[in-house]
Hints:
Distance between the termini: 27 Å
Oligomer: single chain
Mean pLDDT: 86
Helix content: 55-70%
Order of helices and strands: HHHHHHHHEEHH
Number of helices: 10
Shape: globular
Radius of gyration: 19 Å
Strand order of the largest sheet: 1-2
Strand content: under 5%
Amino acid sequence: MPSLVWGRSPQEAYDNPYEYEAQDQFVREAKSLLKHMNTVFQKYSMGFHRDDRSIKKAVWMLQLDALDSLRDALDALVNKKHRVVSTLFRCIVESFDLAAYFHSNENNHQLEEWYNDEIIPNYLYRNFIKKTKGSKAAKEKADYYSTLSKIIHRTYGVLLYGYGLGAGDMLWHDGYKNSGLLILPQTISTYFAILADLILNFLGETSVRGILSEKEVKEAIVESLETKTVPRRFSLRLRK
Length: 240
């Protein structure tokens, strides 16, 4: 992956937030990639009847919803609207997981409930993960949801992403004086890394769940990514 943002950990991105050229490269690549994926996904438009209650239709709709949210998150992050982005992250993951749950082909009852406009709780997917992949994978998924829940439920630590420290450690809000220049670069850098990870997960999910082929996904990647990685501007700073 040319841009160093792909595969970057959120913590490293937070500790090294000033790689603006690398972020710009990621934005170019991600926009191209998501646009390409949307074009390929649209091959199913006019392909399912309104009354169709198949697994494939459900997976397509859920993954397309995730794709739309990824595109919205990218646009919002470019405009430094990190609060909008943070609320989209869990929606994206839940769409991934619900599609995977239905694709397991063991949950026809829940699929019918979903088509009847019922809410499918995410603990069912976690239980499914525990059954099929083991307790460790289930715990990792639960921990991931816990982290995302902090974003959704606006914990103190999450809200602090929108505040800086002034003289005497006094808080100022990043909307202070209506200046976009006050948006913390650490917040934007961290959210870019999370978004990059979600996009990579999306690429994997589309081929695994049978909506797109591996060939189609690889073609989208090849056509969208640049040939050379923009180098770092600063030495890598690691947290001790």
